[in-house]
Amino acid sequence: MVSLHILTAEDWLLWEKTRLAALAEAPHAFKCRLDDWHRGGREQWRARMGIPGSYNVVALRSDDPVGMVRGVPGDGETCELRSLWVRPDLRGEGLGDRLIEAVATWGRKSGFVALKLAVIPGNEPALGLYRRRGFSIAEEAGDLLPDGVIRELVMVKGLR
User: Fold this and answer.
1) In Å, what is the CA distance from 154 to each residue of 22, 121, 136?
2) Alpha carbon distance, N-terminus to C-terminus of the chain
3) 3-state DSSP call for residue 65?
4) Is residue 158 a contact partner of residue 138, using CB atoms and an 8 Å limit?
5) What are the N-acetyltransferase domain coordinates in residue numbering (predicted)?
């Protein structure tokens, strides 16, 4: 059985363990690279967990982290979904849906009217999951990827 745990700033070690596992397993799915996180040390991890108003969730099976997601306040009425990852052996079992819904519920309760995210173009499994959960491609241009040419795709869905 997999349970979802809302983390506090004091849980940064669990967040670090899970995030490093995600970046190692699926480097193609994230703009950030594993090497980016090895340089900052403890303070970088603590700062990430201390973003005011953020909502950080890790999925655990027993004590083993098997998924993660973040909700971050955005501009105005929009919040952002970030860092979604599910361990490969659990993909297709609904855990991604549960993690997305956890952030959507947090967003609604926090008074946001829209939830947006950025995804790497060509990540068809993620795009399929997001479309199934009601996201559509926005007109907003995403950030440039490390290659300096390709941009992330921005997707959005209403929360009301």
Assistant:
1) 21, 10, 8
2) 30
3) strand
4) no
5) 2-160
Rounded to an integer, what distance in angstroms lies between the CA atom of residue 5 and that of residue 26?
Answer: 22
Residues whose CB is less than 8 angstroms from the CB of residue 47 and which lie 6 or more positions away in sequence, other chains included: none
Strands 114-119 and 78-86: parallel
Amino acid residing at 136: S
The pLDDT tens digits of the residues spanning 9-43 come to 889 889 888 988 888 888 777 766 556 655 556 77
58 vs 17, higher pLDDT: 58
| DSSP tag of 46 | H
Domains within the chain, CATH numbers bracketed? 2-158 (3.40.630.30)
